[in-house]
Amino acid sequence: MAQTDVLLTKQPAPQTIEPCALPHKEHDMACNTGAYTSSGLATAGFRTAKYLMDEWFQNSHGQYHQAIMDRTHSERQRQESQQMAAETEALAQRTQKDSTRKTGERLEVTHCWKAELRREVNELVAETDLLLAQKQRLERALDATSLPFSIATDNLQCRERRQHPDLVRDYVEMELLKEAELIRNIQELLKRTILQAVNQIRLNREHKETCEMDWSDKVEAYNIDEMCTHYHNQSTEVQVHPHSIRMEESASTPETWAKFTKGNLIRAERERLASDNLRTLIDCILRDTAEDLRLQCDAVNLAFARRCEELEDARHKLQYHLQKTLQEITDQEHQVALLKRAIKDKEAPLRVAQTRLYQRSHRPNVELCRDAAQFRLMSEVEELNMSLTALRDKLQDAEQALHNLEDTRMTLEKDIAVKANSLFIDRQKCMTHRNHYPTVLQLAGYQ
Length: 447
Fold this sequence. Notes:
mainly alpha
């Protein structure tokens, strides 16, 4: 609200503060700055509602200016409204004509797609029987892989009964794991291929219905669009549908509509080619899988033969070292006996020397002399003690060596038994079982 529009509507409130003397202050000429100011005179406790002449003229000129602005805005709005009415009329006629033309073009496109769909409806029946025969071959090949897988898993389980230190992850186990993994992959591949064949058969049977459904929808859409092209402003069938402009979320775009029908047509032709390609692929898969299984079987057999040779060689070497160890044990036992006898032989001279020293220590008075005999006896005792210490050390070393040889003998004997057990498992358990491996024809699904 402008300042000139504010007026006092009641008397000023009575003064509530006692008047008092104000300090003296010099003032310039007071200027009236608004509706709530006085005419420049000092006031104490009340204000005046009077305006100056300049304020009155200012208020009048403001109202003139506002009136001019309102008229100008109104004239501009009337001109814009008239122009908009003319433009919208032309736009309505132009858009109706354009939408009629677009609907006609849509009819032509729909008619073309109808013809293409009708042509593709009857072309997907011939490959189904051939594909069924290939599916049966896949099933026979899948059944044939169960025996190789059981052989591989049985070999792995048998080899788990090997004892330490032969319970190793050797190349035989690697080849067996590779064989088991290969069989699992082949089984998965055959299952996927069977599923693919089943899906292909289903697609061959279902795609005709899909094309017919698409064709039926296009016939209905064609009739609706043809009826829409006959509507005009004077038609009595037209009504007001305020919510018809709302686009359904499931509505397609021209691109997705054409892509859907084109996809049906492409799939109709592609399924016929896919059926033939799938049969060729099945032939290649069965041939390659059978060859891969036989090659891996040969690799496992070769690894078993090589491992058995290594085990046999290791067992012979262990037996050789066992014989040498037994001979060394015998020699070491003799050495221990010799050392014990040598120690015992040194005990008597030591007692003699110690007794001599003891007796000579009882010589009286000046006869207790540190003569040459005394020194020689002392050195003799020291030499005998050093000899005994050395002999006892050698005896301890010899006994420790003998103990180590005994441990080695037990280890060698145990290892020889482990090698014999490993050879029995690999030769008698595993390699004998592998003689029942299926033939290539069985793996290829021909039998």
